[in-house]
Amino acid sequence: MKIVDAKVIICCPGRNFVTLKITTEDGLYGLGDATLNGRELAVASYLSDHVVPLLIGRDARRIEDNWQYFYKGAYWRRGPVTMASIAAVDAALWDIKAKSLNTPLYQLLGGASRDAVLVYGHASGHDVEDTVKAVAQFQKSGYKAIRAQSGIPGLASTYGVHSGSGHYEPAEKDAPPENVWSSEAYMTFIPTLFARLRKEFGEELHLLHDVHHRLTPIEAGRVGKSLEPYHLFWMEDPTPAELQESFQLIRQHTTTPIAVGEVFNSIFDCQQLIQEQLIDYIRATVVHAGGISHLRRIANFAELYQVRTGCHGATDLSPVCMGAALHFDLSVHNFGIQEYMPHTSETDKVFPHAYSFRDGVMHPGDEPGHGVDIDEALAAKYPYQRAYLPVNRKSDGTMHNW
Ligand code: KDG
Ligand code: MG
């Protein structure tokens, strides 16, 4: 089954997405997401300048061999640009394989391990009471697991809090916005938020929280400990994870479960974290971690250490990634939870999809392939617009992690 065409489609129906479309000699096509928020054109160039010319003529059925060819063949291994490009090829080839066998992708991944996929939604507010209202709204919409982020007294803006009435969308056009951060203000405030949420919603609702890489390990230990009475489902990215051994210090101080890995792109980024059971959930997902083939490797490795999956699912991951991730989630044994931020209606129209949400869970649908398509004519109406993620500084002007 020879590949006869491959093209990169860049569009911006509210936010930028990069999609790879691979077509075979039989007229089948598959889609892969290659979006890297704020650096989209780097991946688009990697694909169209370096990968697409090599794809033509290759056998679409040889998914593993193609993966190894683009990983080992590049010589320069890993990194978000390379791995997002390989991920797009891999997801598109799985899509084609499943379509050629007329089956939903999860059936090729071992079949369903569960009836549906538990997802968590993003509630945020400008202060505690505003956040309580947002969580109530999500609960009313059926969510059984809700991430709560709130504005912090004394800080003008922070990660995860929507600015208007809609969903949170961090990337901004033209230049990176600058936020000011205080770990001290955050650490004082955050237990009061979760004390209030537990008081309001009782014990059953799963509550999650994203620290977004901002604390030192010892500060993270303190925050995890202070949140223990409110038994979070997880505390995410408490500290930047380049130094995997730093999580030993957090573990010495708290039993609050830890989720890490949305910025990881290979199994080597989380090898120690998993092997030493320093985390409870691995957040790597299809687009940034080398596609379905590599993500399965990470999940299978994590299963040995009772680490469960918790795929990243913010809106900068396109519906193509979401569809592929849901097939992975449904099939993988050590699934934990899936993040779900619904896309805008413009995005949903550009990417018609078979997946659906109901009563706090999602299902990828039973269409052949991963079940996500692209309306190319509509996509062409939304040209790329340069946008950047924010940067973060401390109050004295020092650059900090965003
Ligand atoms: O592009 C960056 C976002 O995907 C990230 O900030 C979202 O942390 C995030 C999350 O947990 O969804
Ligand atoms: Mg996060």
Detailed description of the structure:
By secondary structure, the chain is α/β, with parallel strands linked by helices. The protein is built from 13 helices and 18 strands. The protein has helices spanning 40-55, 63-72, 80-100, 105-108, 128-140, 183-201, 217-227, 247-253, 271-275, 291-304, 319-331, 345-350, 376-379; strands at 3-11, 17-24, 29-33, 117-125, 145-150, 172-173, 178-181, 206-210, 234-236, 258-260, 281-282, 308-311, 335-339, 356-358, 361-363, 387-388, 391-394, 399-400. Helix 1 packs across helix 3, helix 2 runs antiparallel to helix 3 (80-100) and helix 5 packs across helix 6 (183-201). The longest helix has 21 residues, at 80-100.
Give a short summary of the structure.
The chain has 402 residues and is α/β, with parallel strands linked by helices. The protein has helices at residues 40-55, 63-72, 80-100, 105-108, 128-140, 183-201, 217-227, 247-253, 271-275, 291-304, 319-331, 345-350, 376-379; strands spanning 3-11, 17-24, 29-33, 117-125, 145-150, 172-173, 178-181, 206-210, 234-236, 258-260, 281-282, 308-311, 335-339, 356-358, 361-363, 387-388, 391-394, 399-400. The chain has 2 domains: 3-104, Enolase-like, domain 1, CATH 3.30.390.10; 108-367, TIM Barrel.
